[in-house]
Specification:
- This protein is an alpha/beta fold.
- The chain has 2 domains: 138 residues, Aspartate/ornithine carbamoyltransferase (Rossmann fold, 3-Layer(aba) Sandwich), CATH 3.40.50.1370; 156 residues, Rossmann fold, CATH 3.40.50.1370.
- The longest helix is centred in the C-terminal third of the chain and has 21 residues.
């Protein structure tokens, strides 16, 4: 059966750990594995602008011996006349895998149903599982383990990052806190899915409206932009609603003394995070950005092995 990564809980706890272990190995020996040697081609499709996703997948596919085929939906039939499933049936005869950075989760699910090659969600409106693999890799590098750590996300819990932290965090056995206004809490179905996973991993999900209360004792402090792509018209309202959830030096002082700060980037310094934090000694955002490369290479290797 073809395996895909469309949302974080497509991986079991053991599978998630296996991919992170593989990412650590590939980071130590970058050209160790060449499963795409030939070169085989991987289609990397973009509906949205990108820096880290575009670079890390293109470089990673090349590292694995393959050739990245970068496709913009604005210049393809997928952007208009053709359905995701029809596009998938065309691509599967020519490529080893499909990576798609898009808007609607439903499009990814349709594409995955229509193909026999792995489909990877490189970001959707609902989830960002590739980013979470990189984040978990980064946390493990700096903390030595994941299980039992407390990770607190500040800001828009309805975002793809909020949802992915909830699912991937509990899969790793972490205690995930979401600090947000009630109207920005993660979707109830995502929280329910995470709670089911937590029953077997020992993790947990807790929703807070008080950012200071949520920060106390946190091992990992996280935030993301308050104005995601497609939400630009809501900027003024979002800045007003989320202002008290900015990560500041005071926030970090409430966290554990050895807490680390992560942010998937790009960052709006002065909005969701102060410059003193993201550019400070507890920030590991540049390690996190690099780890997109290693985590995604590991994911592709793992998915291809399932074929």
């Amino acid at each position: 059966m073809t395996r895909h990564l469309l949302r974080d809980d497509d991986l079991t706890p053991a599978e998630q750990a296996e991919i992170i272990d593989l990412a650590i190995a590939l980071k130590k020996d970058r050209w160790k594995l060449k499963p795409l040697e030939g070169p085989q081609t991987v289609a990397v499709i973009f509906d949205k602008s990108s820096t880290r996703t575009r670079v890390s997948f293109a470089v990673g596919i090349a590292d694995l011996g393959g050739s990245p085929l970068i496709i913009s939906t604005a210049n393809s039939q997928l952007g208009g006349k053709e359905t995701p499933s029809d596009t998938a049936r065309v691509l599967e005869r020519q490529v080893a895998a499909i990576v798609w950075r898009t808007y609607a989760q439903a499009g990814l699910e349709e594409m995955a149903r229509g193909t026999t090659v792995p489909v990877v969600n490189a970001l959707s409106d609902d989830f960002h599982p590739c980013q979470l693999l990189a984040d978990l890799l980064t946390i493990r590098e700096h903390k030595g383990e994941l299980k039992g750590l407390t990770l607190t996300f500040f800001g828009d819990g309805t975002s793809n990052m909020g949802h992915s932290y909830v699912l991937a965090g509990v899969t790793a056995g972490m205690h995930v806190r979401i600090a947000s206004p009630v109207a920005y809490a993660p979707r109830a179905d995502v929280v329910a899915d995470a709670e089911r996973i937590a029953e077997s991993t020992g993790g947990s999900v807790t929703l807070f409206t008080d950012p200071d209360e949520a920060a106390v004792g946190s091992d990992v402090v996280v935030t993301d932009t308050w104005v995601s792509m497609g939400k630009e018209e809501e900027k003024a309202q979002r800045l007003s609603d989320l202002g008290r959830y900015k990560v500041t030096t005071e926030t970090m002082a409430l966290a554990a003394s050895d807490a680390i700060f992560i942010h998937c980037l790009p960052a709006d310094r002065g909005y969701e995070v102060d410059a003193d934090v993201i550019d400070g000694p507890q920030s590991v955002v540049w390690d996190e950005a690099e780890n997109r490369l290693h985590a995604q290479k590991a994911l592709l290797v793992w998915l291809l092995r399932q074929q």
